[in-house]
Amino acid sequence: MIMKTLIIVDLQKDFISPSGTLYVKGGEELPGIIGEWIKENQENLRKVIFTVDWHKIGDKSFEINGGTWPIHCLQYSEGASLPDSLFLLCKELGINTEVIYKGNVEDHEEYGAFERNTGRTPWETLKLTGYMSGVVEVKPSDEFIVCGVAGDYCVKEAIGNLKKYLKNVVALEKAIRYIG
């Protein structure tokens, strides 16, 4: 049986709530869709990894600082929060969860959570390196399922980052929402 690792990209309030500062249309549907997928795949789901956009107020990507985007996902803010429901579901089902933080690089925009991957591939595990959160170990033989927001930016980049190091990376299209 092929085991799966689910990677949920930036499922944060500022993106998935209609009141969020960078709301992605349909984002509010994703916790329910992803929760159902987790239940349906719990038997061969090894781990769920959440990526989190994690900006400081002085971030150069914000419009007020000369960037492209409105202020969103400020560190420790309500807008940066993830849905409790998915963590509770994983706990109830005995599925391990981990969090990777990204989006706090001084010199450029960081859409993909695994851009700074060291690329080290030990025999049994691959160490995926997030910007602030240290290392998450995964099994390269797993199938990596990627979903979340936004499909045209952060999900796309996360998939591209992962494909540099892993063979079995696929998008869970029904659980991806796009800005454009």
Q: Give the termini separation.
A: 37 Å
Note the overall shape: globular
CATH fold name: Rossmann fold
Rg for CA atoms: 15 Å
Number of domains: 1
CATH architecture classification name: 3-Layer(aba) Sandwich
CATH class category: Alpha Beta
Helix count equals 4
Largest sheet: 5 strands, parallel
Topology:
Blueprint: E1 4-9, H1 13-16, H2 30-41, E2 45-53, H3 84-93, E3 96-102, E4 126-129, E5 135-138, E6 143-149, H4 154-163, E7 169-177
Parallel strand pairs: 1-2, 1-6, 2-3, 6-7
Antiparallel strand pairs: 4-5
Structure characterization notes:
The chain has 180 residues and is an alpha/beta fold. 20% of the residues lie in helices and 26% in strands. It has a single domain, classed as 3-Layer(aba) Sandwich (Rossmann fold). The strands form two sheets. A five-stranded parallel β-sheet has the order 3-2-1-6-7, with helices on both faces. It has a two-stranded antiparallel sheet with strand order 4-5. Strand 2 (45-53), helix 3 and strand 3 form a beta-alpha-beta unit.
Summary tags:
two-stranded antiparallel ribbon; five-stranded parallel sheet; 180 residues; Rossmann fold; 7 strands; alpha/beta; single chain
